[in-house]
Amino acid sequence: MIGISPLLCQEGSADLRTQLLEATELNILEAARLLRDGKVVAFPTETVYGLGANALNVQAVQGIFDAKQRPADNPLIIHIAQTSQAQDLCRWTESAQMLADAFWPGPLTLVLHKKAVVPEIVTAGLSSVAIRMPGHSVALQLIQAANLPIAAPSANSSGRPSPTTAQHVLEDMQGRIPLILDGGSCEVGIESTVLDIRGDVATILRPGGVTPDQIAFIIGECRVADTVMRPLRPGEPALSPGMRHRHYAPKSRLVLVEGGELAVARTISQAYDAVPGTRIMAMHKHLPLYGNRLVDDLGPDAGTAAQRLFYLLRAYDEQDAVQIFSETLPPTGLGLAVMNRLARAAKFDIIHAGV
Ligand code: TXA
Ligand code: MG
Fold first, then answer.
1. Burial class of residue 32 (count of CB atoms within 10 Å of its CB; 0-12, 13-18, 19+)
2. Hey, which bits of the chain come out as E strands?
3. pLDDT per residue as tens digits for the range 151-191
4. What confidence score (pLDDT) does residue 231 get?
5. φ and ψ at 320, to 5 degrees?
6. Whether the bond into 44 is cis, omega within 30 of 0
7. Rounded distance from Cα 51 to ligand 2 centre (Å)
8. Half-sphere exposure of 189 (CA within 13 A, CB side)
9. Given this model, what pLDDT does residue 37 score?
10. What is the pLDDT of residue 238?
11. Which of 15, 146, 243, 260 could form a disulfide with 238 if both were Cys (CB 3.0 to 4.6 A apart)?
């Protein structure tokens, strides 16, 4: 470890010492060495921080499930740095190539038929595998230096909002993993689009940074699974196992209010006035509608809302918010991904305020 300057070293509850290191070239090499050694390392991507391990090493991947306390039936995304790596892991297709050319490196995960080399633990026993090339120089350098495909879920404890800063990762992973690479705040702020391209029509299982229209523009057609905006019915099979699990949930109740701008602001303001400790999330242009109440600004558009959402949800946990009321966004473009996360975080608790 000579030459590595820890920004922060703290003891965890377990006996492992977690180092939080700036993502310098030297520290990236150290992280790559740990990955080759079968260890679990957290690293930044353009979407959220990932918790990586050698995708071809069953014990290493088990380390991810242990650190996150992730249910074993929820498969992982494999991260690569070159398209040729994907061809080794799955049955590569023409649409896969077109989508990779258009969006990789970037926030698009492709679900394809897996090859036998991918261990069952990565895909939770499914015959498919999810693959993406992250659009972040640190992630790409790390994968390249390790010279391995890297299985990586978001680096939060299972059920908590995904981490968009290295500090968030430390909150959840302290004492559980040896190293967190700090690459600053994540640019997109919510996880990648998960797109199943095995069938005749490509289907979005989880909306994210690449929108349905962008995908349709490249391959002609793109469907959005209807479970993206509603809870699963009891016993209904999940297209993407992640949808079965509780997700993004803050500790306090989160309520979404939809309807006309004025009606929404009135309903939320009433809740704020009635219950001290209520927090509000609203779009920037609506701030004047809330008078001098304290409002957390989601910014001017869905892009800024995506960047701030998980950050705010984590802050509410820290601050012991009593309840949270949020505006909704039009579920189009990136707004669909933001609404998917908000609706799940709210456990589909949505009030209609009128027009
Ligand atoms: O942006 C991202 O995708 C981040 C960064 C770290 O790359 N990763 C991420 O991983 O969000 P995770 O594990 O938190 O979410 C992966 C989602 C889960 O909902 C999982 O069920 C789904 O992808 N998934 C993985 N493999 C799948 C497969 N073979 N078929 C269907 N869904 C799959
Ligand atoms: Mg996750």
1. buried
2. 8-11, 17-22, 41-43, 50-54, 77-79, 108-113, 128-132, 150-151, 179-182, 193-196, 202-206, 222-224, 253-258, 278-282, 296-297, 323-327, 350-352
3. 999 999 998 999 999 999 999 999 999 999 999 999 999 99
4. 86
5. 50, 50
6. no
7. 10
8. 19
9. 98
10. 77
11. 243
Give the Cβ contact number of residue 335 at 10 Å: 20
Measured from the Cα of 155, ligand 1's closest atom is 6
Least confident of 125-134, 204-213, 237-246: 237-246
Digit-coded pLDDT (tens) for 28-79: 999 999 999 999 999 999 999 999 999 999 999 999 999 999 999 999 999 9
* Residue percentage of the chain with pLDDT more than 90: 87
Ligand 1 center–CA 303 separation, angstroms: 20
Give the tokens for residue 163. Answer: 């981490």
Q: Which candidate, 311, 313, 352, 305, places its Cα nearest to that of 333?
A: 305
Could you tell me how far CA 277 lies from the centroid of its own chain? 28
Q: Which tens digits make up the pLDDT trace of 270-320? A: 999 999 999 999 999 999 999 999 999 999 999 999 999 999 999 999 999
- CA 6, 11, 13, 15 dihedral sign is positive
Distance CA 21, CA 9 (A): 9
Centre of ligand 1 to C-alpha 57, Å, is 18
Alpha-carbon distance values, 16 to 39, 175, 279 (Å): 12, 5, 36
| Residues with a CB atom less than 6 Å from ligand 1 | 45, 47-48, 50, 74-77, 107, 109, 111, 123, 126, 128-130, 134, 152-154, 191-192, 194, 205-206, 240-242
